[in-house]
């Protein structure tokens, strides 16, 4: 029975489809709905990818991993029809029952007819532009249909779980013994369990044997601390994200106890205990033993009478396994299926660059060392060029046409067939299959491979564009973060370290930075970093033996073969020496260099560090394997080098100016304080402002004549270099005038005149000036003038604190000053404390330390030495408020010892 306003239309039925009443609330057919998930997607292009992710995540969470590939492909086609062709939003509903899953896609365009042209057999025409999504439904699903209402159109498909023997997940054919995977020792399966915070809670004996950590060493530590995760900015899943997926399978590295990285193949399964607490169980084997854990590749999908077009083709179902937006997985699966389809010994796939002038190696199988992944070859036909890119080509024997396919040179391959990948007539890549047997392939194989390539070209290009967009977004985020880090320091050494740490391991396996102290000087090796810390010293020793790269800016970004050549020659000499010594290990420095050969054996690229139209250094990035740098990585590294060069030059200029400034400031400070018999002296000085050694506060203590010493402590209005200039004038004038035999009032009056003569640069000055005469019988005679300065405090042995002088007018304000001198005797055990207003005006909110607070601190210093008194005053000032002092501060302490 149909609902009012509803028309049920069964367009195409698979023989295995169940026909029954559709109950939205609880049933479809005879199966009970056990789970449901729904989402709505707006009519924009990115909704298709979002819908794929929604269906993938939903089925993964329901434990239907074997249905994900087909469901994602069909959902992608149907949502594309809705949001792109119908131009409306789309609702996606996933229904789980006891035997499978049903996915419905609803759009708001009910008048739209079925988009295909029936053929005489009543099926969609494969050559028509429309209806291909429904063709996939007919081929891949167990049943499908279309339902119309007055307001929407609902296209649905159903996928059945495949029946499997109890206790098995999948089964494969019986293989001959010589085709079984090889293991050189007992296979060890490490079982590691981590909790919701990624902390290791279980570590079995095989894990101890594989990675050399005992259980006690790793329990309670994050697994992310041990994982060496392969990462390219903006792409891939991190270890933390992988541990939170319901199931994850793939390769990464774990750092062993000896520092080396052990490549492993891992299978993660997320579980929960009886209390509902989630955790992840990780099964790990050596990478070369991955067959123990790796899920077998899904074979071609054949659906009874509707298998037309699938026909056992090994590339069938490739669009959904792996998902199209997983480019590396898609390309690797493609070359493996292409090799199997033509029964070849090797296969490879290249993708075209944006300008279509070059092809870049992206995936290969059966070739040594991945045949330098990301290596580039030109497209156009010429000597040594890749001439078979735009049209299918067959080479019966490469020995007869050497150089026809440079990628296969030296691999032992003879027969090869290559076909282009094209989208709307535009070259997007090239797919090739090779055999060691001459004459193996002909035009028939080329047609089969071209047919397969045409079927996957659009998916590959879509995945490539998705990856490119991810890379661009990741690159932008990477550069923003790098710019913030580089802008956060003005230390050249820290800038060098940041430059290297941002490139390793994100962009390269190792990095070296050369700097140029002067414009025409040779580059100097300044910093080396490798992702394996144990190899840093070896690479540094190797690079020190190699002439640095040429800093000529006209050379631009370029490869640099010297490190790899030097490492190779060192390894060769070492091998010959061992042979000459009868296999004995040679002493000396050759051993670490030999171990370094593998670390620098890949491509090495030099980037000039250009700032303000001159080269200030060189950034060297290297690979340790045959894999090349991809173009996007080189462009990102070049952008980083420009930002790093400017940051390094700014830091260098800042250091030079700071050094000059500090040298000038140090010249304003008095030299070493003289020793005074019978009197202890201590001075503490703090200048406000970062990088300032001298400010507006100053002090001095100097001999005037035999048995007489002058001392001064003052405060110039303001802080920084302007105040420091008046400081220098005051300190030097005091010394000259005092040694002329003038008394304290005359010295200060003439200094006042000198300050006023500075005109607009003049600043008023508070100053305490005194003369000290130690007495042979003990004690010291003091004569002092206090011109507007905080009064000095005198501490008696009994703890009594008094002001030692009277206040008088400050300097630099009025011309005619009449100052007077005060005289008193500093007895045994007495202390004279002189400070600037940075001490007495220390504030915390509305509170101020003041003269009374300082007197209270000094009153508790009875019996302390001059140094201890000064230290206690400084500590009291710092503890009075939470923030750092904002004013210059000087403390001068004189004390006559008891003995």
Automatic annotation (TrEMBL):
GO molecular function annotation:
phosphatase activity
UniProt-listed InterPro entries = Bact_Sigma-Reg, GAF, GAF-like_dom_sf, HATPase_C_sf, HATPase_dom, PAS, PAS-like_dom_sf, PPM-type-like_dom_sf
Q: Where is the PAS domain?
A: 191-221
The record's keywords, sorted A to Z, are: Hydrolase
- Which PROSITE patterns would you find in this protein's record? PAS
Q: Which CDD domains match?
A: HATPase_RsbW-like, PAS
Q: Which residues form a coiled coil?
A: none
Quote the NCBIfam families the UniProt record gives.
sensory_box (TIGR00229)
The identity of this protein, by name, is SpoIIE family protein phosphatase
Species assigned in the record: Streptomyces alkaliphilus
Top-level taxonomy: Bacteria, Bacillati, Actinomycetota, Actinomycetes, Kitasatosporales
């Amino acid at each position: 029975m149909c609902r009012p306003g509803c028309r049920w239309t069964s367009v195409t039925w698979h023989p295995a489809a169940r026909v029954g009443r559709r109950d939205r609330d609880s049933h479809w057919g005879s199966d009970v709905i056990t789970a449901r998930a729904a989402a709505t997607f707006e009519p924009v292009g990115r909704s298709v990818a979002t819908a794929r992710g929604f269906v993938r995540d939903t089925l993964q969470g329901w434990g239907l991993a074997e249905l994900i590939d087909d469901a994602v492909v069909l959902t992608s086609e149907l949502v594309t029809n809705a949001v792109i062709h119908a131009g409306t939003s789309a609702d996606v509903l996933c229904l789980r029952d006891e035997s499978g899953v049903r996915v419905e896609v609803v759009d708001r365009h009910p008048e739209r007819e079925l988009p295909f042209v029936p053929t005489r057999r009543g099926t969609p025409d494969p050559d028509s532009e429309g209806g291909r999504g429904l063709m996939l439904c007919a081929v891949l699903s167990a049943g499908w249909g279309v339902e119309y209402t007055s307001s929407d159109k609902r296209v649905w498909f159903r996928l059945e779980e495949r029946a499997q023997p109890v206790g098995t997940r999948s089964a494969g054919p019986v293989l001959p013994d010589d085709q079984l995977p090889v293991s050189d020792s007992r296979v060890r399966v490490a079982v590691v369990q981590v909790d919701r915070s990624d902390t290791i809670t279980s570590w079995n004996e095989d894990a101890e044997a594989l990675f050399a950590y005992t259980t006690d060493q790793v329990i309670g530590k994050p697994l992310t601390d041990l994982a060496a995760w392969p990462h390219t900015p903006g792409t891939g899943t991190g270890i933390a994200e992988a541990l939170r997926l319901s199931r994850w399978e793939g390769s990464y590295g774990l750092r062993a106890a000896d520092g080396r990285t052990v490549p492993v193949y891992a299978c993660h399964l997320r579980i929960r205990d009886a209390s509902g607490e989630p955790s992840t169980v990780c099964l790990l084997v050596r990478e070369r033993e991955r067959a123990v854990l790796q899920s077998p590749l899904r074979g071609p999908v054949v659906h009874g009478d509707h298998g037309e077009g699938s026909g056992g083709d090994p590339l069938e179902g490739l669009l959904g396994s792996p998902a199209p937006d997983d480019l590396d997985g898609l390309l690797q699966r493609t070359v493996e299926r292409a090799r199997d389809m033509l029964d070849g010994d090797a296969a490879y796939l290249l993708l075209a660059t944006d300008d279509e002038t070059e092809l870049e190696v992206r995936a290969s199988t059966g070739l040594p060392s991945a045949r330098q992944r990301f290596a580039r070859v030109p497209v156009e036909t010429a000597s040594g060029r890749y001439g078979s890119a735009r049209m299918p080509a067959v080479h019966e024997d490469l020995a007869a046409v050497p150089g026809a396919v440079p990628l296969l040179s030296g691999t032992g391959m003879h027969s090869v067939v290559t076909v282009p990948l094209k989208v709307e007539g535009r070259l997007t890549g090239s797919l090739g299959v090779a055999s060691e047997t001459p004459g193996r392939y002909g035009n028939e194989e080329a047609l089969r491979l071209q047919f397969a390539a045409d079927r996957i070209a659009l998916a590959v290009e879509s995945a490539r564009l998705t990856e490119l967009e991810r890379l661009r977004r990741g690159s932008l985020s990477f550069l923003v973060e790098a710019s913030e880090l580089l802008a956060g320091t003005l230390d050249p050494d820290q800038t060098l370290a940041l430059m290297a740490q941002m490139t390793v391991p994100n962009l390269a396996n190792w990095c070296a930075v050369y700097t140029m102290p002067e414009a025409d000087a040779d580059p100097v090796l300044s910093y080396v970093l490798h992702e394996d810390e144990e190899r840093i010293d070896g690479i540094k020793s190797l690079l020190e033996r190699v002439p640095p790269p040429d800093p000529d800016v006209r050379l631009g970004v370029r490869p640099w073969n010297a490190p790899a050549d030097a490492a190779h020659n060192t390894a060769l000499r070492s091998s010959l020496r061992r042979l000459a010594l009868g296999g004995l290990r040679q002493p000396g420095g050759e051993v670490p260099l030999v171990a370094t050969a593998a670390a620098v054996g890949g491509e090495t690229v030099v980037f000039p560090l250009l700032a303000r139209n001159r080269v200030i250094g060189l950034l060297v990035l290297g690979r340790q394997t045959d894999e090349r740098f991809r173009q996007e990585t080189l462009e990102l590294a070049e952008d980083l080098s420009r930002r790093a060069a400017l940051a390094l030059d700014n830091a260098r200029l800042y250091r030079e100016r700071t050094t000059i400034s500090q040298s000038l400031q140090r010249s304003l400070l008095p030299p070493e304080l003289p020793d005074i018999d019978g009197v202890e002296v201590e001075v503490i000085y703090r200048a406000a402002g970062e990088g300032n050694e001298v400010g507006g506060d100053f002090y001095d203590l100097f001999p005037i004549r035999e048995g007489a010493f002058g001392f001064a402590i003052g405060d110039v209005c303001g802080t920084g270099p302007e105040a420091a200039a008046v400081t220098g004038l005051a300190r030097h004038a005091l010394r000259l005038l005092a040694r002329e035999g003038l008394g304290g009032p005359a010295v200060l009056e003439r200094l006042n005149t000198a300050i006023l003569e500075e005109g607009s640069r003049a600043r008023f000055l508070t100053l305490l000036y005194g003369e000290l005469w130690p007495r042979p019988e003990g004690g010291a005679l003091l004569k002092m003038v206090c011109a507007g300065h905080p009064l000095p405090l005198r501490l008696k042995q009994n703890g009594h604190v008094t002001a030692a002088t009277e206040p008088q007018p400050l300097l630099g304000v009025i011309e005619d000053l009449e100052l007077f001198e005060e005289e008193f005797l500093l007895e045994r055990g007495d202390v004279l404390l002189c400070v600037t207003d940075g001490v007495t005006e220390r504030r915390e909110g509305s509170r101020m330390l003041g003269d009374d607070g300082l007197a209270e601190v000094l009153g508790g210093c009875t019996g302390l030495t001059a140094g201890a008194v000064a230290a206690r005053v400084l500590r009291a000032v710092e503890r009075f408020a939470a923030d750092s002092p904002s004013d210059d501060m000087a403390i001068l302490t004189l004390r006559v010892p008891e003995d």
